[in-house]
Design brief:
By secondary structure, this protein is mainly beta. The strands form 13 sheets. The protein has a five-stranded mixed beta sheet with strand order 2-8-7-4-5, with no helix packed on it. The N and C termini lie far apart (156 Å).
Length: 761
């Protein structure tokens, strides 16, 4: 190699050494008290930079110091006061991406080991020990246990976060006692304790037992386990009330638990021990649940009743029977139904009503009594007998005062000639199903279980066998406020000077107490004047008089409790009718009635049954002679325009001749079939239809005969009508065409027979 190449290599190596003289890291961080320090310590954290650069120092990622001058000192220090939680300090050159840092953890030195517990498991024979230092050290701590024999010098473990240390190790079978020492240490200090001595027979712990089966009757349960080798067994059992009971027994006998409640679910656990003086208790077994069997109820029901309105056209009195459900201990099973026996006076046989598991039943009877009993799968409760009477009302003073938001104190004057036993019942207004009652032996009572802003009513009844007396209770509440909602008004009837207004009831949940009254507000729209009318609750209608005819008003209603007035309901605008409008309405109604009558009467005439009834009535009238066949009509016929009959010229002895009657010929519409027949002989055309009287030949035809002699046609028509006689006739006398004769009619031409007056065709 030439000398020039040698010098080039040496210069390059010197440059590399010069640039890397400070090592590969940008900086180094150190703590004045190390990385694990006592909690709350003060210390200094220093950063030593290997390069001239812009320096930055951070704590848990947050900038705490900044030195911009590159020519400043290479070491940067930060003072830390009262360090209480783990922190990370780092330093960084702005010109280099790689930082340097240190993690500092505060903690405690360990305390003296204490609370040492050692047990020997019967199955494995190993010994397990556990101890504590009283508190967690936060920083890493090592635990060590020494066994005082040559074979087991020591066993190491790590303290957990709660400050517990533990160790498990084997021992010789020949050992009768165990001697151990303890040590706990970390970077802040160390502590030791011992030696500790244990008798092995005292620390033997049996394995956890197992309940294989539980069999129960109504009052006791028998437990079956997998192993009865232990001399002492402890049984722990509880029901749904949360109370745990401990029962200790000799394992050689049966594990029986007595004095249990019927129809109750129990949870059982057991543990065992070698004897009272030897060994430790085992762990509790897994829980096993079982339910005792039912028994017949042994307590009578608490029964009460309320009066009800009797059904229409019924002489019986009606009552609603209520009873309280038995509690679990009294029911001794699941109640399947209730039997209600009704016994009426003077009757030997009772009627039994089976009621599903509800708590009331309606009964109607007179002079009767009832008995109620509860039935479960095993039997029946004692019968509760109660006579049914309509209690007479009494008027004595009663006072009440709220005790709190859910109870009220009642007191009343003692009833005259009454005993000292009373029943106080109450229920929410309009909800008799929510009835509650209590029995007292004095004239005072506390009723509980009330809801705020709820109105209640009820009664106090003096218990007397034959003549019970009752004091009514109305409008009681613990505390109340103004109603939440207003009534909605409606018009009943309206006149020019008066108005009947009704309004809806407020839902009970919106009343917020006991309603006392309603206020009706009436505003005159033209004047703006407002009148008010007060109506006591529970009335929901009112007649307002003195209104101005033809005037418009606006009306609304509010409700009141003892706490104040509620909001207004919806507005009801209306106008009173004027006098002319009222008269016009009367005229229209009268005209409509007349028109309706005129339409109904002709329609009724079309029904055959109506026609027959009129025909039957006609027979009761006197017979009218036929003018066409009278002698006077034939003898005294004048001209074609006027016919006059002078009956005085006829023989007065003739019965069919009436007295002086003057008849004038007029055109008559063919309303019914009393017009018989016309045959005209004329040479004139059909269009003119001019017929002379002299050309008309009289042809008398019976009302049952055929027109123009057509008997076959009549039979066909009758057949057709009979086939459809269930349809009302569509013919009307007002729709028949008038017969145009072209001249005047004479009584000789027209034959009137009113016997078929209603047989319109």
């Amino acid at each position: 190699m030439s000398s020039e190449c040698t010098w080039s290599v040496l210069i390059m190596l010197c440059f590399i050494l010069a640039t890397g003289a400070h090592g590969g890291t940008v900086c180094t961080v150190k703590s004045s008290k190390g990385v694990e320090v006592l909690l709350g310590s003060n210390l200094t954290v220093s950063c030593l930079f290997n390069y001239q650069c812009t320096k930055r120092t951070f704590r848990n990622g947050t900038l705490i110091k900044f030195i911009q001058s590159p020519n400043s000192s290479s070491e940067v220090s930060v003072d830390v006061k009262n360090l209480t939680k783990p922190s990370t300090y780092s330093c960084k050159c702005e010109e280099h991406a790689e930082p340097c840092g240190i993690d500092i953890k505060p903690g405690y030195p360990p305390n003296v080991p204490q609370n040492l517990t050692c047990i020997q498991k019967m199955i494995s024979g190993n010994v397990s020990c556990i101890w504590t230092t009283g508190r967690g050290t936060i920083i890493g701590t090592t635990c060590q246990l020494w066994v005082h024999d040559d074979l087991h010098p020591s066993y190491m473990s790590i303290m957990d976060s709660t400050g517990l240390c533990y160790s498990t190790f084997p021992i010789k079978s020949s050992m009768s006692q165990l001697v151990v020492s303890l040590s706990v240490s970390n970077s802040l200090g160390s502590k030791t304790s011992g030696p500790h001595t244990f008798i092995l027979s005292n620390i033997v712990k049996p394995s956890m037992p197992n309940i294989s089966e539980v069999s129960c009757s109504s009052r006791w349960c028998s437990l079956h386990t997998d192993n009865h080798s232990m001399n002492l067994v402890e049984i722990q059992y509880s029901s749904g009330n949360g109370i745990r009971n401990i029962y200790e027994t000799d394992a050689k006998s049966r594990l029986n638990i007595s004095s249990l409640q019927p129809d109750t679910m129990y949870e059982f656990q057991i543990r065992r021990k070698i004897s009272h003086t030897v060994g430790l208790w085992s762990d509790w077994s897994q829980s096993n649940k079982a339910k005792t069997k039912e028994e017949a109820p042994d307590k009578a029901l608490d029964v009460w009743y309320l009066q009800e309105q009797k059904p229409p056209q019924s002489e019986s009195k009606c009552f609603r029977i209520f009873w309280k459900e038995l509690n679990i201990s009294d029911a001794k099973g699941t109640i399947q139904r209730y039997n209600i026996s009704v016994r009426k006076q003077m009757e030997i046989k009772n009627s039994i009503i089976a009621v599903p598991p509800r708590r009331n039943q309606s009964i109607c009877c007179s002079y009767c009594s009832v008995s109620v009993s509860a039935i479960n799968s095993v039997g029946q409760s004692p019968v509760k007998f109660i006579p049914l009477h309509f209690a007479g009302l009494v008027s004595v003073s009663l006072s009440h005062s709220p005790l709190n938001n859910h109870s009220i104190a009642l007191s009343w004057t003692k009833f005259a000639n009454a005993g000292t036993k009373y029943v106080v019942h109450w229920y929410p207004v309009e909800n008799r199903e929510g009835i509650q009652w209590i029995r007292v032996v004095d004239n005072k009572a506390h009723i509980t279980g009330l809801q705020p802003q709820q109105c209640y009513q009820g009664a106090v009844t003096a218990l007397q066998p034959s003549d019970p007396k009752m004091l009514s209770i109305k409008g009681i509440s613990t505390w109340q406020s103004a109603p939440e909602q207003g009534p909605v008004p409606q018009l009943g009837w309206k006149k020019s000077e008066s108005l009947n207004v009704t309004w809806s009831k407020i839902p009970p949940k919106k009343r917020r107490g006991c309603l006392k009254k309603y206020t009706i507000y009436l505003m005159d729209k033209s004047k703006g004047d407002i009148d008010s009318f007060s109506v006591d609750h529970p009335k929901t209608h009112y007649v307002i008089s003195g209104l101005t005819p033809g005037q418009c008003y606006n009306l609304w209603v509010t409700a009141w409790t003892d706490a104040g007035e509620g909001p207004r309901g919806s507005d009801l605008p209306f106008c009173t009718p004027s006098d002319s409008e009222r008269m016009l309405s009367h005229v229209i109604l009268a005209g409509a009635a007349v028109l309706l009558t005129c339409l109904i009467i002709p329609c009724l005439c079309q029904f055959t049954s109506v026609q027959k009834r009129f025909s039957w009535c006609r027979k009761c009238l006197p017979t009218i002679p036929d003018p066409a066949n009278s002698k006077c009509a034939k003898a005294y016929t004048d001209d074609q325009s006027e016919i006059k009959f002078y009956l005085d010229q006829c023989d007065s002895s003739m019965n069919e001749e009436p007295d002086n009657v003057e008849v004038e010929e007029v055109s008559y519409p063919p309303i019914c079939t009393y017009i018989k027949s016309f045959s005209q002989e004329s040479s004139s055309s059909d269009a003119t239809q001019i017929t002379s009287i002299t050309d008309i030949t009289e042809d008398y035809i019976s009302t049952h005969g055929a027109i123009s002699g057509g008997e076959e046609e009549d039979e066909e028509e009758e057949t057709g009508l009979n086939e459809f006689e269930f349809f009302p006739s569509t013919h009307s006398p007002f729709l028949e065409p008038l017969v145009v004769t072209g001249g005047k009619l004479t009584l000789d031409v027209v034959k009137i027979d009113c016997s078929e007056f209603l047989d319109c065709t």
